[in-house]
Amino acid sequence: MMAARLPDATLVCRLPSVRGRYIENVDLSGSTWFRAGGSADVVFRPADTADLAAFLTACPGDVPRTVLGLGSNLLIRDGGVRGVIIRLDKSFSGIEVDGTTVTAGAGALDVNLARVCRDAGLVGFEFLRGIPGTVGGGLRMNAGAYGRAIRDVLVWAEAVDGAGTLRRVAVDELDLSYRHCGAPEDWIFTAAGFQGELGDRADISIRMQDIRQARKASQPVNTRTGGSTFKNPDGDNPNSSKAWELIDQAGCRGLVRGGAKVSELHCNFLINTGGATAADLEALGEEVRRRVQAHSGVMLQWEIRRIGEHAPDRAPELILTEVAP
What we know:
Layout (H helix, E strand, L loop, with lengths): L7 H7 L6 E7 L11 E7 L3 H10 L6 E3 L6 E3 L4 E6 L8 E4 L2 E5 L4 H10 L2 E2 L11 H7 L2 E2 L2 E2 L4 E7 L5 E5 L17 E8 L1 E2 L2 H18 L5 E5 L14 H7 L6 E2 L2 E3 L6 E4 L5 H19 L8 E3 L18
Parallel strand pairs: 2-5, 3-5, 4-19
Antiparallel strand pairs: 1-2, 6-7, 7-13, 8-14, 9-10, 11-12, 11-13, 15-18, 16-17, 17-18
């Protein structure tokens, strides 16, 4: 059900006093890698975990709350997001190393975590060099690449639940599997603890450079994209068909809808070629799903998170054009 739009002029007045910042009517199109989408009624940047917990404790229950990280695996619809967008800033981005254990804030970039661990001579975090996101986002979807995932190095995680209660759980309590985390949806991750192994810094650097080069050669980096669009069917099974293979076999490589396009370099990536609306991108993704199901019988599942409302004048139509061979 579409959430009713809350009057912007009165929403902040209904929110609790905080030490962080409230910002009204924020254009979110620049906050995602797609560079498309609508606005937020209010963005809240908490000062620290205690400030976040106090906000969640006192926030009226009818006010929708959504966490926004780096925006690399996210599509914000053109009608925007109602309620409050929560963004974790610098106070949540610290990384500390103690021997072979690492503690990181949920706002820390995955690539920064990989670099800190490299500098400390810790093996096991190199795969994070290929994930353009934050630790919090990685926890929420058990982010992975190049044969490893967050669950392989995670020891514990901390979160604040929707009622403002602080939680700390071991990795086994999170039910992590391929692109899945079993934590309740209202939990907002704030920090995590990881375990690595001592290794050779030169070897770690080489591995990270190899990952960087492999990603550059096989993915449309430096473009307006949201990363892998669909989950691999039976993602933990290395012998199952990959999403990109199914998309390619269904003839979707290079498919275009308005300013949205299926990448010709890696067809599990959608690209905003310059003027795509969120509706263009979502409609193109749905058409890819339809064609793949018609061709192979497999219904691909979105990996990219889609949030917000469709704009009334930008309904996601399915009128497409093909790229000439």
